Amino acid sequence: MTDFAALLIPDDGGPATDLTLATAGGFRSWLGSAGTRTRSLLAAQGFTAKPDTLAILPGDDPADWSAIAGIEADHGPFALAAAAAALPGGRYRLRTTGDMGAVAFLGWLLAQHRFERYRKAGGDTAPRVLLTGDIGRITAAVRLAEATALVRDLVDTPASDLGPAALADAVIAEGRRCNARVDVITGEALLGANFPAVHAVGRAASQAPRIIDLHWGNADHPRLTLVGKGVTFDSGGLNIKPGGGMALMKKDMGGAAHALALARLVMQADLPVRLRLIVPAVENAIAGNAMRPGDILATRAGKTIEVTNTDAEGRLILADALTLAGEDSPDLIIDFATLTGAARVALGPQLPALFTNDERLAADFAAAAAAAGDPIWRLPLWPGYRDMLKSSVADMVNAPDGGFAGAVTAALFLEAFVGEGQRWAHFDTFAWNPAPRPGRPKGGEALGLRAAWALVQKRFLEKEFPA
């Protein structure tokens, strides 16, 4: 993984190239006091401080130069990303054209992250090092960049190298790093341990299904439980996906990647919580013993499910995982899942859908998302659609007919496995950038992670536990 700590360091007063940040309004004021040569050079480059643009300002000799970068007035976490990508390797010191408040470092760091497991490094890989006097923010920025890169790298790894076993190994590695306990239940043992839905979804794959269960922290602290959908590849099962729909299904474990990254942030910060991370890890494959449409599955909760679509498998494994999550009555459950195409149709690839059964929690998430510059959008747990989940032969179906309100009915399905009175939030996230943006290349992406991290810090550090 990229050494982010080497890219953001305390200002030691040594040589560095000035990087001036300018909003459109601040630039006009700054330009009025600049020299004629500077104004001419900027005019020649067509620089007007438009966000994500950069211009070079020569100095008095060939080795003496500086740069100016345009950013939004309401700059977000990726304000420095375009500059970090465009500048040559070296050391840089920030200057501003006015009082624009604290500028996030995240974009500077993530613009330099590359997923290069399967190819040699190409292009200019010389590091761009940013010097800052804001020492107190370095550790937080580096940890957040590392957590985001963890999500990206896991999602970008193909299923040939990231099956259920490797996903369990990734959780175990994070557990070792932070002195957490990780228990893994595998294969036929899932039936004896009462995880029948996880077993049913994953039993047809060459790698056995698993429940991965991490525990960390003081048992006397408030309980935070994270759950992540870990479908390492989704063929659709016997309701097989078309080729186009299967192409990105290595990312169907993106929920698990988000939950693991959030767990890492919690443990690194030593938050005063009793943390639990639960990942049901399966591959939804096709074989003679694959679950079939029309099968009726048992669940850990005792509810029975008629399988109307084997491609709606993520909610089945989450049913067992959410039941387990609620058994020790945590103060908060947050689950992440790449659950429905319907959420993408409604909100597109950049906005994760948030569902929650708690109004105060919804408001807190909205505030946290705004503060973190990590947009989310709440969708309703509309009770009128619960009838869509009714079955004539079981307690419920896993996928209603008709396709209406697919993200909502999927969330309502999950809610049926959340204990009464249990505070719960569900992220239906895409975990993918279909097109590159500054600091966010095409590929795996953390969407909702920063919002959840901001919420968790505020809630548990300030001990906000409303009734």
TrEMBL record:
PROSITE patterns: CYTOSOL_AP (PS00631). GO terms for biological process: proteolysis. CDD domains: Peptidase_M17. InterPro entries: Leucine_aapep/pepB, Macro_dom-like, Peptidase_M17_C, Peptidase_M17_N_1. Residues 309-316 form the Cytosol aminopeptidase domain. SUPFAM superfamilies: Zn-dependent exopeptidases. GO terms for molecular function: manganese ion binding; metalloaminopeptidase activity. One of its GO terms (cellular component) is cytoplasm. Keywords: Aminopeptidase, Hydrolase, Manganese, Protease. The keyword Hydrolase applies. Gene3D superfamilies: Leucine Aminopeptidase, subunit E, domain 1, Zn peptidases. Pfam families: Peptidase_M17 (PF00883), Peptidase_M17_N_1 (PF21337). PANTHER family: LEUCINE AMINOPEPTIDASE-RELATED (PTHR11963), PEPTIDASE B (PTHR11963:SF20). Belongs to the peptidase M17 family. This is Leucyl aminopeptidase family protein. It comes from Sandarakinorhabdus fusca.
